[in-house]
Amino acid sequence: MAENKHIHLxxxxxxxxxxxxxxxxxxxxxxxxxxxxxxxxxxxxxSDLGIPVAQPFDAKNLEPRPELVVIGNAISRGNxxxxxxxxxxxxxxxxxxxxxxxxxxxxxxLVVAGTHGKTTTTSMLAWIFHSAGRDxxxxxxxxxxxxxxxxxxxxxxxxxxxxxxxxxxxxxxGPKFLHYxxxxxxxxxxxxxxxDIYKDLDAVETAFRRLVNLIPRRGRIIAFDGxxxxxxxxxxxxxxxxxxFCPVERYGAGAAANWKVTNLRLDPGRTTWTVEHNGDxxxxxxxxxxxxxNVWNATAAAALASSCGIATxxxxxxxxxxxxxxxxxxxxxxxxGITIIDDFAHHPTAIAGTLKAxxxxxxxxxxxxxLEPRSNTLRRRVLQSDLARSxxxxxxxxxxxxxxxxxxxxxxxxxxxxxASEIQQNGRPARLLADADAIVQTVAPELRSGDVVxxxxxxxxxxxYEKLPARLKQLAETQ
Length: 479
Fold this sequence. Notes:
It is a single chain. This protein starts with 5 loop residues before the first strand and ends with a helix. Helix 2 links the parallel strand 2 and strand 3 (53-54). The chain has helices at residues 15-26, 42-49, 80-88, 95-104, 118-131, 201-212, 235-241, 292-307, 312-320, 348-361, 384-391, 416-425, 436-443, 464-478, and strands at 6-10, 30-34, 53-54, 68-71, 92-94, 108-113, 137-144, 149-152, 158-162, 167-169, 172-175, 184-187, 220-224, 248-252, 259-266, 271-277, 280-287, 330-335, 338-343, 367-371, 396-399, 430-432, 452-456. Helices cover 32% and strands 24% of the residues. It is α/β, with parallel strands linked by helices. It is globular. The model has no long low-confidence stretch (mean pLDDT 92). The chain has 14 helices and 23 strands.
């Protein structure tokens, strides 16, 4: 593609789209973008890269006419810019297609896929390769704190990618990860998610089976293997792996794990564990992250890095210095002994893992869960009972109104009074409050030193991350 060509991205504030914008700019393209509303961390990220973001959407944002438009997968027919692109016959493509054509050719492509843990595991894998001097390229669906970025174009042969099963674009309803043609993958889990585009679990499994079917015989799959003493507790995962043509290695605490986690200790300040490889003691690992699920993520990254020839001591050193990803158990504020955590919660299983991790990290603290049902799965009632069970791991639960509830058919929509009732049946108090402002006004006076507040949303949540600490400071001054 000719350099200094003008490329415009519609929906540029999505994490992957913002990363692609940065990669294109680094390659010498003129990059512009637009979105409905920009919010951190991606708005700050784009601003630091010097990429102009027009908001809201408007046909004028496509003047002067770009040579190519990338259509984000959240953009659908009726969007004024998309309609203008179609009317004017401006060439357009999807993010995965441009990524494949422009950046992945000639690289060894490593993809991290699965319902949970993709962003953190991809960040760990990229940091291990970087620390080992392999100078990888990577694209992550979040900002990896070790790099201060969600992308990098390295000179090494590896390109490390977060592989999303969400659909590609309005004109391509297949999963994004099928465009990447990976040489090896990590597969963490297969559960029902993205209820807006997948009809049922069988449809999700079909997508992952197709991914498995893409891996060449010389490639490798590193797949999760359950909890201690058992084989994996996921028949879905087993069905997806059944017809693999390449070697499949398992990680976890399951009976069949090739990379077996033992001696796991979750202490308030650090996490340590041992990995046995095919029955032999292989490595001792430690890092500052909380949560059993992060141990699985790290072990998967270690296994794939080892299979690419990276020495165990280099893997251990990289994990020890691994920081985290923005919006993953991120401490946003500490005000008068009250800790406010931001976590990008999108699914009941992820929420359960987050709350369990916070219990271990902050033993004895009163744990609050403040949820905005915002992801396409959480806005629907399909996993309502699972959500109630997950939230009941907190001591106090507050749930905001369903984000843009009018976009979800009423017969599919999460039923908030029923959710609150189910949480109470699980033995925990639950309250329904309309929005961020109502939550801040009600909850702030009740918070006390030692409390840990997990704010669970995959969006901006009405500015609650700034408003709650500000209100707590205000209250302290008036006392």
